[in-house]
Design a protein that fits this description.
Elements: H1 7-16, H2 20-42, H3 44-63
Length: 65
Amino acid sequence: MTPPPDAARVVARALSRRAPAERAQFLRELLAHTAAGLVIIEGDRAAGEAVYRLADAVVARGAGR
């Protein structure tokens, strides 16, 4: 049985199939659906923590510019 591809490869493949102008919207929608899935699987608190960590990483990356 072949193991499933890792998430990074799935996302990279999906991005490569879209025009450059469509990629940011795809990622925004992916983030929204992922957060909603975490709410269902792990609950509000865990999903909120994941989103908070993502936002924190974005802010930290912006601070380095």
